[in-house]
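Hi R.,

Here are the chain sequences for the assembly we discussed:
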Amino acid sequence: MLLREVEYARPATIEEAISVLAAYEGARPLAGGQTLVNVMKARAAAPDVLVDLADLDELRTIGFSAEGMLEIGAMVTYAQLMGSSEVDVARAILAEVAATIGDVQVRNRGTVGGNVCVSDPTNHLPVLLAALDATFTIRGQRGERSVSADEFFLGVYMTAVGEGELLTKVNVPPSAGAGDGFAGLTIGVHGTYVVNAAATVFGDMARVAIGCVAASPVRATTMEERLAGGDYSDDTVRAAAEGLGASLDPPSDVHGSGEYRRHLAEVSAVRAVLQAAARRK
Amino acid sequence: MAAPVTSRTVTLEINGEQVELEVPVRRLLVHFIRDDLGLTGTHIGCDTGNCGACTVHVDGEAVKSCMMLAVQADGAKISTVEGLAADGELTALQRSFNEHHALQCGYCTPGMLMSATALLARNPHPLEEDVRVAIQGNICRCTGYVNIVEAVVAVGGNA
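And here is the predicted structure of the full complex:
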């Protein structure tokens, strides 16, 4: 397919990338391209300048901060997450979920930064990172800032990354005995999600997030409050999810009505919490 | 700060040969391989990233060449289906495809071979489920996959 004509820069440093992004209107970072190249073919997106991040090796690392936070560079691929001993030790759910994104070819090129910056409500990582209480490091010409998942995902295809800014890394707290779960319904075995839910359970605290039901991940705060007693038996978790569906206003499309998505939200949340609780250490 | 450009000289290695060519930024890698380099073994099936017929190896990893710009491959080592039997001798995988009747119309075959070759490089003795995961991004509308999976498993000796 023929793409609309587009300009291209391949900066050697993060600073240079930010300069180009700031200097040209319609400039957009190009990570793995597993979404962007396709939407450019469909002319659903038409950036004027692609700023290829391929040479920015410092965005490809996975490591730990001095405080023990798992730091995942924006250009880390799904395949890299799956093979990372750091991820395995600190937050194995990231590798587990990454292994279900797309297919081998997509996982070889698709990146963590791309997945979250596209902010497609049906993507895997936004809802998971919301449940894991991740923070997002954004760099611009005026310096660096860090935002929570609640502040990062602003809407469909919209994030806190502004013009002239770049997401550099995603910071995830290590599990420290917490259990994590992920559940939902896909179109086909590893297809797009109709609804998904992620949960993390630590002691008598639970964080639950629902995806695909709104423009950005929705925290199931009432369910979290009801679970605060630390009882994660089947009956208690099911009771805690009651009314969650009614509190949502999900879209209807060919894959499911809003009513069906409300039902799936409760079922997915229950499954994610039960899985998380069973994995606590 | 390097100013953005609409075309760029791409230098890469493809099937062991060095290539240097100026290409428009908007050219997809699959068109570069097929039209600029004349290597038409790599097929275009859906052109939307779903079918995997365009699968090639970029720095040893299977990728869909319709979901990558040629300029993104600057500096990379690429291999295509033509690189498998470069010396005229079929690889064990290609022979196994022949022996197991793993192709019918043949359209998906280059992509299947490249995905399976990447699998065998990191897992020389795959089980059936390993093969099914490896070719999940490759669609075949003729065979029902059974013979393809058998052909790949047989190469590793787990048949």
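The domain at 7-52 of chain A is CATH 3.30.43.10 (Uridine Diphospho-n-acetylenolpyruvylglucosamine Reductase; domain 2). The radius of gyration of chain A is 19 Å.

Let me know if anything looks off.

Best,
T.
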